[in-house]
Amino acid sequence: MKRLLLSIMLSAAALTSAVAQNSHDKGIYTDLRAELMGTSKDDISNVVAITAKYFLETPYVAHTLDSNSVEQLVVHLDRFDCMTFVETVLALSIDYMSPDPDYANFENILQKIRYRGGVIGGYPSRLHYTSDWIYDNIQKQTVEDQTKLLGGLPFRPTLNYMSTHPQNYAQLKDNTATTDSMRTIEKQINLRKSMNYIPKYKVASIEKKINSGDIIMITTSTPGLDYAHVGFAIREGNELKFIHASSDQKKVVITPSWLHTYLNGVKTFTGITVLKAK
Prior knowledge:
Layout: H1 2-36, H2 44-54, H3 82-97, H4 103-114, H5 130-139, E1 143-145, E2 153-155, H6 161-164, H7 176-190, E3 195-199, H8 200-206, E4 215-220, E5 227-236, E6 239-246, E7 251-254, H9 259-264, E8 269-277
Antiparallel strand pairs: 1-8, 2-3, 3-8, 4-5, 4-8, 5-6, 6-7
Helix pairs in contact: 2-3, 3-4
């Protein structure tokens, strides 16, 4: 009986917390809509840039999607990691461009962006690898790849990091079946044609062609991985900077200097893929 009561109390507390979070997020959504009021819908990149800057100083929190035992859509507008920042800003911007934007529409768009084919079907259905995210979102026409037009070169990493490091992921640790599913997904991704990237030594020469609001995916030399970090291009005066949820600074920030300067400051960063919201 005591266990049953405890279970009921914990479930009620979780429900209360979820309702409070939802109400809080809806308040932020409403405030952002007021901030965007009057912004032209002719240029989604401008909407993306304004939306990204709205979240400056928002706290960085890791693993925000991994707190539930059952995979489900998680929304937090008051905390981000680098990928949830990009996904949320993109979903909010696409929602704003919609004929009938509202919070439910935003949630539907976020699910479409975050999950393979927009369908939630357990932990492996989430687009964990950035190259898989890019491929799937190009297919869904939420983004388009600008990299080749900017002089990008072929980029084909061999992905295996998640299946070879299951101890680093709560849902994979001690879960052979889910780890095997991720291994299958990695093999499928590895069979696709090459991605494109701009080596970081070339980024300075093409920065003038990158637009404020473009999505910047940063490639990595880490074995088994494809990308290490994501964010958006932001133009301030003549400088092209980078807005991102920073794990070092524990909040959403804009780099103090050029995007290429930021890239050159991290040894394992190798270049960028540039996407545009559609």
